[in-house]
Specification:
Layout lengths: L10 H21 L6 H18 L16
Length: 71
């Protein structure tokens, strides 16, 4: 099985970005409510993190710097 790349310039990805941004805004507004208990707040934060992780797929990853081993 080969890993397929995502085309971040495609109309499909742009639709996903729009949906994810909309969901993030909605979840953040809900999370700001003083009516949520700790469990509901944690649930909202988990959903926010998942949408942010999806959006982060389009961010270029920096190459990690190699540090010489310290002896």
């Amino acid at each position: 099985m080969t890993k397929q790349a995502i085309d971040f310039t495609s109309p499909t990805w742009h639709a996903i970005q729009g949906l994810a941004s909309s969901k993030l805004q909605e979840l953040r507004e809900q999370n700001d409510s003083h009516m949520l208990d700790a469990i509901a707040t944690a649930s909202k934060r988990g959903r926010i993190a998942a949408w942010k992780e999806l959006l982060a797929l389009a961010d270029p990853k920096p190459t990690p710097e190699q540090q010489p081993p310290g002896y």
